[in-house]
Design brief:
The protein is an alpha/beta fold. Helices cover 25% and strands 21% of the residues. It is globular and about 45 Å long. It starts with a strand and ends in a 9-residue tail after the last strand.
Amino acid sequence: MAEFLRIYEENPNSKEIEKVVKVLKKGGLIIYPTDTVYGLGCDITNIKALERVARIKGVKLEKSNFSFVCHDLSNLSDYVKQIDTSVFKILKRALPGPYTFILPGARTLPMSFKQKKTVGIRIPANNIALEIVKLLGNPIISTSIHDEDEIIEYTTDPELILEKWDHLVDLVIDGGYGGNEPSTIIDLSENDFVVVREGKGSLDIF
């Protein structure tokens, strides 16, 4: 049975954030709100938790395309190779926001991702998500939770999410109704600007 925790996005309660981080540090899986759709996440440093997420998604961990959800751009060099100034300016302009940027992976990537040539970096404009990764002290890996309904595609109601995911995860955060439009994915790994998927993030800012 997953714990169900209500957290208010405008002003997340620090004690509730601590509870979430405790679950993550123990290798737990969480479902949490972002500025786009609800995501399934775990601590990037916990191999068993990573393997659980990969199993749920039906993929091999080393071949997975999970995003790294970060608090800000300060520790970017731990996960991506050195990027040039023009790329950094794009990141600064767009983040926090509803974008996933594909960047060249660094040699210092966690063991499970050593083989990856690129990584998806995400800094959502959602206080709950940002406070979680800030207190955790490192990114969480994240993947969107899909709905079986082909029309709505993503589940937006936290109570329905709990119903479906109750036995698969350790904690579901109720951060209010989620969106039904995923992030815009932009590939900057070759220094070119390639739109992989157009989602919630507008391209007008670039």
